[in-house]
Specification:
heterodimer; A: mainly beta; 5-stranded antiparallel beta sheet; 11 strands; B: mainly beta; 7-stranded mixed beta sheet; 4-stranded antiparallel beta sheet
């Protein structure tokens, strides 16, 4: 049973564009929502994370928007660059579960010149 | 510098053979995790451990075994019972001293069948 649904599966944008990746979850006990960035042959690296007490969080060019009532959250990448080309994973966990993460299926982003 | 080291980077398994993937961390993290990554399926949790000499099954533990004899080490054995072992295996660790600590990942081991 997939508890975190991620879309789209792949995305191509031009340099300077704003790719948006969406995730939806089912488990209302989730209270921590990180995004990871993964380059080929490497492990995922934490990009940004949000908790449900805020609706938006920005870190540099990366923004998470969170809609608790809809059980959805999304990643926006401002002024995207070719170096942002990677696979992005959303994830979720609930307190008291040893920080176990449930991952989305990933979005492969390509930023073209 | 601190981090998670996985070895080997590539591994080949023969039919009926058990193979062990190494994961070592020098971050002094309490918890360690093993994930399997397949194309289009994201990361799936195999096993995790919150403390030395204790570990729990994740979502896809069948055909795998682990041990946690030292805080810094969490090896994963892929047994012959795992019929489809070809995948990218990722090890992660995190602190448990406060809620929702981020997980830090190694650079993975790619396992293939000969």
């Amino acid at each position: 049973q997939q508890q975190v649904k991620q879309s789209p599966q792949s995305l191509i944008v031009q340099k300077g564009g704003i790719p948006i990746i969406n995730c939806a979850y089912e488990n209302t006990a989730f209270d921590y929502f990180p995004w990871y960035q993964q380059f080929p042959g490497k492990g995922p690296a934490l990009l940004i994370a949000i908790r449900p007490d805020v609706s938006e969080k920005k870190e540099g060019r990366f923004t998470i928007s969170f809609n608790k009532s809809a059980k959805q959250f999304s990643l926006h990448i401002m002024d995207s660059q070719p170096g942002d080309s990677a696979t992005y994973f959303c994830a979720a966990s609930s307190s008291g579960t040893a920080s176990k993460l449930t991952f989305g299926t990933g979005t492969r982003l390509q930023v073209t010149l | 510098d601190g981090g998670i080291t996985q070895s080997p980077k590539y591994l080949f398994r023969k039919e009926g053979q058990n193979v062990t993937l190494s994961c070592e961390q020098n971050l002094n993290h309490d918890a360690m995790y093993w994930y399997r990554q397949d194309p289009g399926q994201g990361l799936r949790l195999i096993y995790y451990s919150q403390i030395v000499n204790d570990f729990q099954k994740g979502d896809i533990a069948e055909g795998y075994s682990v041990s946690r004899e030292k805080k810094e080490s969490f090896p994963l054995t892929v047994t012959s019972a795992q019929k489809n072992p070809t995948a990218f295996y990722l090890c992660a660790s995190s602190n448990l001293d406060s809620l929702n600590q981020p997980q830090h990942f190694g650079d993975g081991t790619r396992l293939s069948i000969l």
